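re: ur question from earlier - yeah i can do the single chain one, its not a big deal. heres the input i used so u can compare w yours
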Amino acid sequence: MFWYLIAIIASGLFLKILLKTSVLQIVKKWWRFLEDGCYVYQFYRVPQFNHNMQENQLYRKVSTYLNSLPCVEDSDFTNLISGDKSNEISLVLDANQMVVDKFLGARVFWINKKDEFTGLKSLVMKIRKKDKRRILQPYLQYIHSVFDEIEQRKKEVRLFVNVDNEPQRNGRWRSVPFAHPATFDTVVMDTDLKNKVKSDLESFQKSKQYYHRLGRVWKRSYLLYGPSGTGKSTFIAGIANLLNYDVYDVDLSKVTDDSDLKTLLLQTTNKSLIVIEDLDRYLGTKSTAPSLSGILNFMDGIFSCCGEERIMIYTINNKDQIDPTVLRPGRIDVHIHFPLCNFNSFKTLANSHLGLKDHKLFPQVEEIFQTGAALSPAEIGEIMISNRSSPTRALKTVISALQINTESRAATRHARRLSESGSVRAAEETGESGIFCKENLREFKKLYGLLRVRSCRKDSSYEFDTSDKDNSKA
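and the output i got, formated as tokens:
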């Protein structure tokens, strides 16, 4: 009896030790190791890029699927990554770590590999050979369906920017969440034109079979041209949010040559906007790394067919200075002009920025616009934001700015006529016109300086800085 009690107590202590310590986990681990040695396994590698350095979509799907599994927590080493929301934390499998999944009664091992020399990643799947014919295809289809569900829940638009080409970098694109609040409703544009563009975009989304029947790549290209501050960048953000497409912002200054530009295009995904801003600046510079032919091939060359449901967007300030071969049909499908602010655009800004649909000063503003005064929507929006606590003061300030602009334009035209006529004597006799032009410019700058002081005094919660300026700009 005594020894029986001793045996029970010893067994209890042993079980307690197993449960309270890691001994049980170690025993399980070694048992699985011995068990695995009795089977023959098949290995499948899923590389991040294919042999053409184009992104392997299956890698992204498998990676998303694995990081969603609860068993990632059981890995020996897991990364904790903050999500887009403040209280969201994601678990991401670290390099050279393993996670074990189960499907249809079979165990599937995944190992996250990273090459020490190239920095390229891959996922290696290990399954028993006796299970591969039974589960391989259904398992991969299951991963596809789970990935689609996750993407549908997330619906997160991302902004990609290209980085310098370095051997240790894993791919050429880096991304951040695209949190731009612009929508098509907030874009300052002629209503009829806005509706036509929106209809064109929605028609493009539904035209896969039509494009294939024509033997054309399922893509569309837009040229946005107009002065700075007229809404081109805001328009791009509105398209991204309307279509729920990722945005790839191509910085040509970080592109080494034409081949590098092709590599960037290959590593973009379907359902995306590919944007090159200020294209005229690069076309007009002989020292630009990608050549003109390289940029033209990027726009409509054979490499542009390596992907579908893409929208290419290019922005320039003045298309009259661009070689017509760049703008021919096939390279550019739609041309959209973004002019300086007119009275209709002003009313849209007054409604969105100040909540005004009408005001007693509107006729005076319209009259000044009819004289040829012109400011960009960003400049007028800036004035309205800094005076948002007093709509009347905002309108009066807009009127003053337009008047100064009108006088400056008139003085500039007068000085140009004098210069063209070559009448030096007349220029000396009316030399104050040049001073008048400069004084108006100084007065215009003082006006903006006064706005900053007033806004700081009257609205302490407002800080007039570049971030606010960017928000009012395109």
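The radius of gyration is 31 Å. not sure if urs matches, ping me
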